[in-house]
Automatic annotation (TrEMBL):
NCBIfam families: guanyl_kin (TIGR03263). Essential for recycling GMP and indirectly, cGMP. The lineage of its organism: Bacteria, Bacillati, Cyanobacteriota, Cyanophyceae, Nostocales. The gene is gmk. It is an enzyme of class 2 (transferase). This is Guanylate kinase. It comes from Komarekiella delphini-convector SJRDD-AB1.
Amino acid sequence: MMQVLPIESGATKECPPSGRLIVLTGPSGVGKGTLMRSLLQRHPELYYSVSVTTRSPRPGEIDGKNYYFISRSKFEQLVAQGEFLEWAEFAGNYYGTPREAVLNQIRSGKLVVLEIELEGARQIRVSFPSALSIFILPPSFDELEKRIRGRAQDSEEAIARRLRCAQEEIKAANEFDIQIVNDDFETALKDIEAALFG
């Protein structure tokens, strides 16, 4: 059975049934990025969609590998042109998923993995109801706060903002197909692999 994907209003394209969109989300500091990096190392056949953001690079982040770092005005221009599959503002910065690259990979039969914020994940659930959505949870809120502070990359104000957002995001976990608690890293990674390949 062919799956029909919404490309733009009024247009559809057929997609081979082997291609699929997988959405990984969860609160800031829960370990999404680390889980994603390990998943990609173990499974190079996965296509990871690099998001676009207006936030500044963190130490060690590389443009085009971790994110595409662009200005707010350029991001807003791309939104106006319909270039994003989803986009959202989080902690004062914009984040978005480039549309065409993802759709092309799904059409070619690839498993495409997105690591995105809650608002973007909700948009994907509406436009791609067949996407597999996975929510990563912390073992506890105290542990999440410890992880965010342990990164030592954000100001106290940014940490407080991330923690407020995290409380709201955790409440949304049940909206997703699968919830995985990132208590033991290796176990969480195996749970994701079982969801994707099981």
